[in-house]
Design a protein that fits this description.
Elements (H helix, E strand, L loop, with lengths): L4 E5 L5 H10 L4 E4 L24 H12 L3 E3 L9 H4 L5 E3 L6 H6 L8 E3 L6 H16 L2 H9 L15 E5 L3 H12 L3 E5 L7 H5 L3 E3 L4 H5 L4 E4 L13 H6 L4 E5 L8 H10 L2 E6 L19 E3 L10 H17 L17
């Protein structure tokens, strides 16, 4: 009988979920986990812990011991300048806890190896789409105004707007973008998307009304009442939304960023918000995180800031454990082609 595959848990995970994983493969895997060697989670589904947390020299030694013989890790394991393969020379597969890991994988050098990387892509689609529409609805239904009026004990009727009939533009119609599109159509919005491929039938496949190729991004923006950014951060999308793109949008349009802060020119966004060209921005991500205290985004009245938490919900780790179990079954059966979703090492998403 072959030796069990050694699996290292490289980020915070609840004990009951680790037990669930172990119970699914009682004789095939050996899980190595020590909660003292990863930062304590600050909240449910926190995979990074306190940024100021550091291992003691003894913990560093134990961390190396835990990882040395790992063939599989749940999340990317590092120590200082040492990456996953430095710590686990026999590493064959990493299951990450996040979707947008392409650039980090490249920084760690895994894109030039045969290590399989599967991501959390899709797990966050529903909560991110829900957050997107919570933001859109709060704006068109004037919830901030209602809050101010309630605090002032003032009863004055007013007029809001409706999402129905508006045009929603999506950049990045992947799993998250498609869920945003599904909700958009449920609210009777016209849904357009920018996608790398715009072959016949592509719109129906993505669940949108119209698809634009990347070189026609501004054409799509010109008709948008609301724009949702859901693309991965790659060399191609870095700074994709700049001053010219924001100026192309309909005056007063809404922008929601659930992608990465670097996909938008932040000073240009601030200027557009101040001028009213962008009427409202809901930002789950920013160029620098945490958002610096002196950023003007904190005090602009037409901005909603979320500390990169829109995707984080109480069910997340359970879904991650289920994905890991499904992928482990394929890994043990030598079916790497069935492991999903796999990070493409060329496109980095």
């Amino acid at each position: 009988m072959p030796d069990p595959i050694r699996v290292a848990i490289a980020s915070p995970l609840e004990a009951n979920l680790i037990e669930r994983i172990a119970a699914a493969f009682p004789s095939d895997i050996e899980i190595r986990h020590d909660p003292d060697l990863v930062p304590a989670p600050r909240f449910t589904a926190d995979h990074t812990g306190d940024p100021a947390w550091r291992r003691t020299p003894d913990q560093e030694r134990r961390w190396r011991d835990l990882l040395r013989s790992a063939v599989v890790t749940l999340d990317l394991a590092t120590l200082g300048d040492e990456g996953p393969l430095d710590l686990s020379p026999g590493l064959r597969w990493v299951q990450t806890t996040s979707a947008g890991v392409g650039r980090r994988v490249r920084t760690l050098g895994l894109d030039q190896t045969g290590v399989i990387v599967t991501t959390a892509s899709g797990i966050h689609a529903v909560p991110l789409a829900e957050w997107t529409f919570a933001a859109l609805l709060s704006h068109v239904k004037r919830f901030r105004h209602l809050d101010e009026e309630q605090r002032a004990r003032r009863w004055e009727r007013h007029c809001g707007a409706s999402l129905a009939g508006m045009t929603l533009g999506i950049v990045g119609p992947g799993r998250i973008g498609r869920e945003v599109a599904r909700l958009g159509r449920a609210f009777s919005m016209r849904v357009h998307a920018v996608a790398r491929h715009d072959a016949p039938g592509r719109a129906a496949e993505l669940g949108v009304d119209r698809v634009f190729p990347p070189d026609r991004l501004r054409d799509m923006l010109a008709g948008c009442d609301a724009l949702v950014l859901a693309m991965p951060h790659t060399d191609e999308t870095d700074g994709m939304i700049g001053a010219a793109e924001l100026a192309t949008m309909r005056p007063g349009a809404v922008l929601v960023n659930i992608a990465r802060g670097a996909v938008i020119d932040e000073p240009a966004l601030v200027a557009a918000l101040r001028s009213g060209q962008v009427g409202f921005a809901a930002l789950d991500v920013t160029a620098v995180e945490p958002l610096p205290p002196d950023s003007p985004l904190w005090t602009l009245p037409n901005v909603l800031i979320s500390p990169h938490s829109a995707s984080t919900v109480s069910s997340e780790n359970g879904l991650l454990a289920d994905r890991f179990i499904a992928n482990m079954a394929h890994f043990l059966a030598d079916q790497p082609g069935d492991m999903a979703p796999r990070l493409d090492m060329t496109s980095l998403y």
